[in-house]
Structures are given as C-alpha cells and as structure tokens.
Amino acid sequence: MGGRTGPQKDYISRGRYEKKDSGLDTGRRAADGAPQRELKLEGRMEFRELIERRYSCKKFGSRMPDDEKLNAILEAGRAAPTAKNLQEQHIYVVRSGEGLLKIDSFTKCRYGAPVVLVVAFDSTNVYTYPGGRRDSGIEDAAIVATHMILAAADQGVDSCWLNNFDPDGLAAALGLPAGEKILMLMDLGYAAENAAPLPNHFSRKPLGETVTFI
Question: Most buried pick, 105, 124, 140, 175, via CB within 10 A?
C-alpha cells in the first residue's frame, strides 16, 4: 500500500518532575571549562523500559486523569500514521455517569476505570488493498489506539485494552454515525493500591519463535 503518514522518553512517574544529574558527560563545556552533565527528569523511563513495564490494569481507583494528561493521550492518537493519511479514526471519551453505565451494560471489563476511550473508525473512508478483500480501517485504528495506550503510560496513567464486548451493539447504544465501526475500548485511570499485572504478563516467547528472516 502507499504507506502510512501522520500529521506533523520517557515515562513521567506520577507527576515527579525533579531534575537530577545523571552523571553523563555531554561533551559540552560550561563557561568555566567544567563538563556539562546531562540532566534527566527523575522517575522517567526510556521507551524500551516503558513498553516493558506497561501492563493491562484490571483494578482502578476512582481518581480521574486531569485534562492535560488526557489531551496528551489524545494528541498521541492524532499523531498516529494512517494509510494515505486518511485519519479515519474517531475517539469518543466516555466519562459521564450515563456514558459509563452504557459501557458497563456491554462489558464487565471496565474494572472501575473513570474514563473509557471508544476507538472507532469511518469504514467509508479507508484505503482498500489491491484485490479488494482488505482495507486499512482496523489496522489504522489499532495504530491510533497503540499510540494512545503508550502515551498513557508516558503520562503515568494506567490503561487496559478491551475487546470483550459487542461492538455493533455498543455503537448503536452510543448513537455512532452510520459507517463508524468500533475497534476497541480503552480503560484509563490510576491503578488501585493492590493492582498488579497478571502472573503471565512478563512471559514472552523468544524472538526465534516469532521472527523469521527471509
């Protein structure tokens, strides 16, 4: 296909922004000739550490992510690449009591999260693969959702990717426009005090079982 484009690290741990000297010499020199040290934000993770530590939270507290963090998550989705830059995604932010009750009527997997993102896409505005049997809607929406779920971790917000629901039934209940299809739901919030990853979360197959060089 024609390739994906998008409109033109670190994990902030629970709002700690104190700078700390990493001890790494940047190669630059201050006015007195002393080496300048690299300053990093305390409590932040590099991308590799972020993707390894992030887990699907299944028990949330009641604290709501503030608008600044929520907007950062949504902006990450907006920046995601889509086929031909069609940007066919539509994100519904559900945080009203009425809206959350509708979510609860279709799934038991909200786990008390105070915010749920409904990630949908316009099925009439997609790139169709040669042969006509596939299109970009699901994969583009999945890329958008992945951007947002990692951005949530970057903002110190816990999340869970939900697929245990009837997407067509929920779309009708929420009054989505004709042609919009729901890909997934994303719980957002802060883990309850005793929440933890599932026992098998950190188990990963070796690359030799999942990657083949041709």
Answer: 140
